[in-house]
Amino acid sequence: MSTHAEDDVISPMSTERSPSSSPTTAAPNVDRAVANRTRTFDNPRLRKDFAAQDAFLYLEDFLAPEVTAQLVQSARGLLGEVNRNYLPGHKQGGSVSRHTIDRLAPFIAELYRSKELIGWLEQLSGDKLQVSPADDPHAYALYYYTRAGDHIGWHYDTSYYDGRRYTLLLGVIDESSCRLDYELHTRNPDVPDQPGSVQIPPGGLVFFDGDKLRHRITPAAANEMRVSLTFEYVTDPNMRPWRRFISNMKDAIAYFGFRQVFRQMTRRGKDHA
Ligand SMILES: [Fe+2]
Fold first, then answer.
1. Per-residue pLDDT tens digits for 156-208
2. What is the CA(157)–ligand 1 centre distance, in A?
3. DSSP letter string over 71-105?
């Protein structure tokens, strides 16, 4: 568990502890690793499946094994950085924001920006996708379910941006009974809601339009551990100021803590002072 006071201090020690900079583990070439996988898929078929499920796709085996291994190593290495949150009746769990990932696990940031990955997601969605703005702590983040009762209740990944926001959820560690329960077509009055449930193994993927998929993660039992990695891509990175405020407050309370969320803003403010 990190104390927030540590978040502003980047010491040589913390860099040396970085799982991704360990001299014993060479990070794989991300673009090549993604391309080697995606070229083996029946992509026209996947695109049809994505559209038929109202912008939702699950693949149990997506990432190259060497990429999954690197993510597992990073997730375990970042256990001491997890920010715990508890919102009675809605969510309980831990998270590591993109700001911490940038400092300690740059491989994840590289995967997020992979042109091969983004290009493949564009093929699936039919949308031109952009990375989320630099001050969005959800752009890429790790979510930890490590204590009995850790879960998140039914919700949408609502976009506060002007355009659509897609969530890519990658399985990293799953030594748990947690499931992603979901309901398709809830925003479409012409199609009956269609429930589903998956357990996402390491290297598995779920990709969806955050405003369309109603979903939850069921509670972890004692001595279980689940870590997922989510990437958020947007079609229009513009956000109106009032929505920005709501989004920041929600992130500060429900996910990453005030220091992580407002640090960027404070810095920006200082830059302009
Ligand atoms: Fe979600």
1. 998 889 999 999 999 999 999 999 999 999 999 999 999 999 999 999 999 99
2. 5
3. HHHHHHHTGGG-EEEEETTTEEEEEE-HHHHHHH-
